[in-house]
Structure prediction request, 876 residues.
Amino acid sequence: MKRAGLVLVLAVACALPFFMSGFRAFQFTQVYIYAIALLGLNLLTGYNGQFSLGHGAFYAIGAYTTAIMIDKWNIGYGWTIPTAAVLCLVVGFLFGWPALRLEGLYLALATFSLALAIPQILKYFEHWTGGSQGIVLSKPKAPFGLPLSEDQWLYFLTLAILIVLFVIAANLLSGRTGRAIVAIRDNHIAAETMGINTALYKSAVFGISAAYTGVAGALSGLAIAFVAPDSFTAFLSITLLTGIVIGGLATISGAIFGALFIQFVPNWALDISKAAPWAIFGIFLIVFMYVMPRGIAGSLRLLWIRMTRPAVVNRQADRDVSSRSTPHST
Amino acid sequence: MGGSGGGAAVAPPQNIMDIFVQQVVSGLATGGIYASLALALVMIYQATDVVNFAQGEMAMFSTYLCWSLLQAGLPYWVAFVATLVIAFVGGLLIERIVIRPVENAPILTIVIVTLGLVFILNSVAGWVYSYIQKPFPSPFPSKPIKIGQIVLGAHDLGAIGVTLVVLLLLFLFFRYTTLGLAMRAAAQNPASSRLCGIRVGWMLALGWGLAATFGGVAGMMIAPNVFLDPNMMTGIQIYAFAAATVGGFTSPFGAVVGGFIVGVTENLVGTYVSFIGTELKLTVALAMIIIVLLVKPSGLFGRSIVRRV
Amino acid sequence: MPALLEAENLEAQYGWTKVLHGLGFAVETGGITAILGANGAGKTTTLRAVCGMVKTAGTVRFQGQRIDGKATEDIVRLGIAHAPEGRGTFMHLSVEENLRLGAYVRRDRVAIAADFERVYQYFPVLVQRRRQQAGTLSGGEQQMLAVARALMSRPRLLLLDEPSLGLAPLVTREIFRIVRTINKEEGVSVLLVEQNASMALELADHAYLLETGRVVMSGPSADLQRDDSIRRSYLGY
Prediction:
């Protein structure tokens, strides 16, 4: 039944751009772009337990890779996307290595500092990045003379890449690799003793997560046709984090829900109040977290479990009472 | 931020030592402000494992409330104390009303709630008070104090004094009162605290109240230097993060020491290293964070995290 | 006369898993009751259920009043003290501060000071270490601290969770001796959860045997000690 549902959603998604304005199509393209980035971040934070408040950096690397390749070297946009992916994969992996020593809060601080530094670094290397002015690109046209507008072509391109990346992620997370990744999150000492090379896995997940976000950044460079340092402030990293929590940590569908939220809710907030739109957005955030503390996908999953699970299971308590290692609720 | 106080032109040339002392004092003044905000962050983190992103905005909002009281004609110190009380109650209410519904939720969920608070406080402040910068008075005389050849701003010295008094009161409270002991216990071991009859939820609320109070002190001491503006605490919060990182997120004492270290370092680097203008000043804070995390993540006074399997 | 503590049809669960199934037990005023059983039988959960630390169903009455469903901090204020599994020491506070916290709910300054003296008499080792960080104490000393802290609240009922866990037999004997003294001289009733059945049966007047969350046997401890087949199959000696 799940398959049928997915096919239906996909069919709707493919039909959408023909029934809406170019701007709307652009908005949905942006949703897919965010979804790719969120999937990447969720892989790292939700599934592997490494808190990153700096993924905006990889988004920026992806976007600027695209921009520089097209603008300075005249390379076709098709090549920029895999390049961004590989570049971010390497950078992410290299960053993941020293980050191994840092846990929870400390990793968050390190990545947050990185995020804060990005705009300044981008402005500093003016010769490559065009400094504060940024780089202007032109939106790619549909290939093979297909009767699609630029916005529609980008929509389908992004959607296609999204589907491919989602399938890869789903495959990665099911099976032994996925279990190892989650095991590291839940108890990395135990995972280590089970023979999992936590160092390798953690760095690899960092790399893959960065690659996903880099691809998203590359696509966003194409979709917006403009990159500038001030688009990649710490706010972007915080937005991505918000997206995965609202969408649902450690879920794949959460990426879509989260992306829809971060794309559209700020606009709704503006519609509701011109004077203090961010206050409305803040209220949305808080209310969402009250009603769905595990995110949209997480709460849907819980609902599903409640509806299908039989009455309380009577099982032998073969696990003695143990309090959590962090001094918080009993 | 971190400029030396006073505006009078100084005629006799100062020697290197004089300038150094001035910059150190100036650094200690801003350091005290970072220390107050860092202390607020660490207090809440220690008790709940949550970093309250809204600490700076709460401080900013408290400062605006003080401004309103001053506009209404209250004398400075009356408004100051009244603001501290309001901040305390506000912090307490925020914990009981906004945070409590999610207190058992995953940590990131609570973090997003504090993020929501950031947006709300910032936006409402901008809406009520506008984004135009306002001047904020200092209770200390504007005439600089001369000690020999050294010129020190009265506000800087005053800020250091206020910070130290508040910290001393806090120390005495935690060390010598039963309530302070109960709060420490509740932060360290909520389960055992309940077994002693301590109402852990209320201890948490008190913690938030106290944290908001320090934030208020920080805001009111920095506002005369940087002017009142809804975004005034954003940069300072980053410095507070640096302070807590340097000192250790698990040590209130460390947060305070860290604050002073960051303040002085920032000022000295800004003075003596030529290419660090005001633009790159924030980079100093970021560099300090990265260096500490690479060398000793738990900071100078923090406890290394021991994992029990 | 109704028992000091009575549980009827007590059930408890962690998340989706039910751990206690319709337990019934009682502690008489002035008595010492033991709850025995193998690892995982639900002994610790029973104490936690009495203190409201776990989700429960059924009734628990203390001095005739229902306490099930109340918050831990309120139950404790009624006169129950719990020395929990793992001792629950405040590791980063001093021994003296730990004891002060035990008396947190009390207001009578003079009596609290007297209680400090009393507790130091029972556990002289704590006097020497009063300013030390509690985390630096040995296992046995921390167990003594846990019992001492529980006593500081002048409870009517003392809940002891596996006091012998991880301790040398000599140290355990000492603690049990002190518990007997407290029970005899101050009339503090005790509900003791123990894996070390032989020591527990020597101390207690009444005992319950738990197996996977159910009471399978109960009676005066003398009876349980005497019954050979029970001893061999359940208590292992």
Summary: Residues 22-233 of chain A form one domain. Confidence is low (pLDDT under 50) at residues 313-330 of chain A. The beta strands of chain A are 135-136, 226-227, 313-314.
